[in-house]
């Protein structure tokens, strides 16, 4: 994944809070986008960059928690950091269960917020890299024939060429040819790498 400049989105209906957060985040050389409402954020041009959202829990006419749920339903997995002046345990639990990475009560330490932001950005970056890797692996998987998928599954389970041949009723030489094709198409340099690929697919519910 290319080294794209991360973007921190701030959604707060108080201009002074937005300005203060912008000043703080820019001290850490972070790009910042400011919005007064969730609606403003939703109208922005989509940017393919790692980052996070700093969101006030209580916004005029809406709830930050409701907006978080809306993001989840829309498939927006950008990490959310909540800020609030009056949190309670139930609210915190609700936010964290919905995927928030942090829930900070005002007044908070600047360093605490910056650490939460940097962690959220790294979390989002790792998730994006994982998504890219999975997409590439799925594309390679689609290039396999049904027989090659069978051989891939058996090879990853630890079967030798001879055992694979016996399992699916083909000759030893044919089994070796299929395995070579699988290794080449899946760009696996060893059986250990092939096993990792199969595990990655299985962890995302993708069957061979």
Give the structure's gist in a few sentences:
This protein is about 55% helix and about 15% strand. It is of the alpha/beta class.
Beta content comes to 5-15%
Radius of gyration, in Å, reads: 24 Å
In which order are the strands of the major sheet placed? 2-1-3-6-7
**What would you call the structural class?**
alpha/beta
**Main pleated sheet:** 5 strands, parallel
Structural notes for this entry:
The protein is α/β, with parallel strands linked by helices and 208 residues long. It folds into two domains: 7-128, Rossmann fold, CATH 3.40.50.2300; 143-203, Arc Repressor Mutant, subunit A, CATH 1.10.10. It contains nine helices and seven strands; from the N terminus they run βαβαβββαβαβααααα. The strands form two sheets. It has a five-stranded parallel beta sheet with strand order 2-1-3-6-7, sandwiched between helices. It has a two-stranded antiparallel ribbon with strand order 4-5. Helix 6 packs across helix 7. The protein is elongated and about 75 Å long.
